[in-house]
# Entry
Amino acid sequence: MRFDILTAVPELLDSPLSHSIMQRAKDRGLLEVFVHNIRDYSHYKHKQIDDYQYGGGAGMVMMIEPILNCINVLRKERDYDEIIFLTPDGDLYDQKTANTLSLKKNVILLCGHYKGIDERIREHIITKEISIGSYVLSGGELAAAVLVDSIGRLIPGVLNDETSALSDSFQDDLLSAPVYTRPAKYGDWEVPAVLLSGHEAKIEAWRYEKALEKTLERRPDLLRKKEFDNDLST
# Structure
């Protein structure tokens, strides 16, 4: 899978995508991530990429031409399944969206800055708009890193344990069950006996029950969503 990230501040993406699971995925040839400095595609003096907004108001707006120049160069080389704009007013990102995007081959991620981008790019070029939460960041770079990480780990072969991603929180609209490791007893704190039993069916039933309890306590909205989705499918 290939990501092309368009940004005004490429340095912000150096560290998040160069370590741990993401770096191993790139080393194995399972994931490609290319970061493009939008300023390199500006024909304006001093590599300008923003200007005052029409109608007045505070904040600068990212211009059409540098963004579109970069996208057009990329689209001459390959077809893209999605051109995604990271923006606070986009669709709220969730695990279902990550699962869907992990099946794509080529994806462009456009990082917003300043007051945003010229609306005409959103109207005519962008295929999907995503927000990672109901808050505002200084730019879309951290959001882009979140998408690459959460999608990249779903690609077959990226994780050492192929079933690991399937048991993550939110995969079945449930939070994950509690996990334990050695020692089995630490002072008065003991691992639940069922996890030491070796009885796979009982362990899975315990994990489901605990996941349900945690979700009900912390994120009951997920259970309501699960019920709604089930109603739609019947």
